[in-house]
Structures are given as C-alpha cells and as structure tokens.
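We modelled each protein-ligand pair independently. The example shown here corresponds to the S-adenosylmethionine entry; the chain sequence is given first, followed by the ligand as SMILES.
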Amino acid sequence: MALEKQEIVDILYGFQKTQILFSAGELGVFEELTNGPLSSKAIAAKIKANPDATERLLNACVGLKLLNKTLKDGETIYNNPDSTTKYLTKSSPDSVRWMTNLNVVYPMWGQLKDCVVKGDRVSSEEFFNYYVTPTTQLEFMRSMHIICSMDAPKLVNVFDLSSYSVACDLGGSTGSLAKALVKAYPTMKVTVMDRSDVVQQSRDFMSEGRSEAISYSGGDFFVDAFPDADLYILAHTFHNWSPEKLDALLDKIMATMKSGGALLVLEKFLDEDKSGPMESLLLDMDMLLCAEGRERSLSEYKEKLEKHGFTDIKSKVVENALWYDAIICKKK
Ligand SMILES: C[S@@+](CC[C@H](N)C(=O)[O-])C[C@H]1O[C@@H](n2cnc3c(N)ncnc32)[C@H](O)[C@@H]1O
C-alpha cells in the first residue's frame, strides 16, 4: 500500500478545506443565500464582513463546489447548489450543519500530538471537553442527535427486539434512538437516562416527534439507580470510559438486569487488525482527545462482555450505518 505525493499533500492540507466550509457556515453565507443568489458585496454586507475578503472566501467555496457562481446583467452572483441547501442550511431536515461544532472540535484536534505523548486528554476534567460550557454542550448534543438520527432507523431493526417491552437507553441524550425504537416497536416503552443537565437541555429535541412511550430520567448512571427495563442500551456510550469505569458500568447493568434481560451495544467496530474502517479510526482519535475511552474490535467487545457474565452474544456489522455496528447479549 502506497500513496501518491498529491494524496499525501491532500492529507497535509485537509484542514484548509475544513476551515473554508466552517468559516462560510459560521458567517452565515449559506443561510443568506437560501432566498436566492446574491453578489459578493451584498453577502459581505449581510454577514458584516470585509467585501474583498468575502469575495475571496466565496470563490474558495466555489472551488470546493459548496457554492455556484454565474454572471447576471454584468454582475457576478453566488448561489447555493442543491447539495448545500440540503445539507448545510439550518432549516433543512437533512442538514449536517450541526455536525460542524468545530469551535470545540478543531482546537481539540490541535492537541493530538500532546495527547499521544501523554496517553490521555490534555485539557479537561469534564466528561467531554464539549461539556465545559452549556453552549458547547448543546452543540455537541445537536451533532450527536444528527449522527444518531441518521443511523437509528437501521439500528433498531438489526435484531428482533419485539420481545422486550421496556427499554432504557443509558446515555440516550436527546432520545433519537428512543424515537426510532418506539416507531419500530409500537408497544415498547423507552426511558432515556442521561445527566440531568443534558435532560434539561433536551427539551428542544423532545418536542420533535414527542411520544407518550418515551420518558426521560436525569441522573448519573454511575451513581443513581437505573430505570427498570428488560432491554438496556449503550449507544456510543460503551466507548467513552476508562477500563475501570466501563467495568463498573457493566457490573451495574448486569446486577440490575433480570434473568432473560438483554443489553444492546451500538458502537462502530474496529477491524480485528485495527487498520480500518476509517470512521472507527477517527472515532478512536476522538476518544483519545475528548474522553477516557477507545474504540474496540468485535473480539474485544465480546471479551469485555463475557468477563461481566453476559451470554448469548450476537453481533452484526451494519453495512448501511455510518457510525454504529451492533451487539446484543443476555443475562442468563
Ligand atoms: C457519546 S454520547 C452518546 C449519545 C447517544 N447515545 C448517541 O448514540 O448519540 C454519550 C452520552 O452519555 C451521557 N453521559 C455521560 N456521562 C454520564 C453519566 N455519568 N450519567 C448519565 N449519562 C452520562 C452524555 O451526556 C451523552 O449523552
């Protein structure tokens, strides 16, 4: 396996493209163009930026195909291509705009070298660097919401969960997985357990697709009792913790579960030789930078679950899900 020189240069300068997209998004360029094309001067006035620098940024966006430009009545005007309207404007239901919470992510990734030397996060005592302020916490929740909502309808159908009547999604954040669960299994009740501050912030998301079958419980899953359930879920919540904390969490789940109960783990598996897939490798870097945990191969997940007494372990690589694969296991 070898790369061409240009491919290496593309990796080296990848951050430049990210910053062009991020800056245009943060300045509101794509939003300003939702009502139709505008000249660079008009856009600069709307986003309150320097006209010459704005024109140069807009041209860089054209180079990346994030914007189109045409000549109309002797004036150059810029407009959003369909893909930008669909994926980068705030009001679009398919928007991935909130995945770009780069105010937190970008400086954090600048610490990667130091993290590798230290073997741990360099900056924050918080659960996540994202949770240091309510604003960055909400940004993080929005990005999780988008990421989980995209894959959730596929994830709830990987295994037949119809024999479970009450589920509890530990670290279920805004309830995106819970919503997909009650849609797929109309008789199921789901409790989302998350930190009280997250449950409080979730109220914006709860109004979207609200369901009587979903309830929210604020608490610390290391300290407080879990809501009763015959199906517990850890989605992108297994990978967050140090081995010691993960052991404590799995022990607690095992002790709380009744015989016949199940645990559904949703995480993106690393290949057994840890050379892919790229999404898992990047998530693993994220874990190193912002949390205490790591990504794992399927055999590492199985080993951990077996150590805590879980049996009947079944797994599935979910081909059409971007950020999750699935494992289900039981308590005898
Ligand atoms: C990486 S997010 C995953 C969110 C969601 N399950 C998903 O797949 O999108 C981890 C979640 O665990 C929650 N969490 C962290 N520490 C917690 C604790 N001690 N008690 C309860 N929830 C916690 C976070 O607030 C966050 O919502």
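The chain has two domains: 5-95, 102-330.
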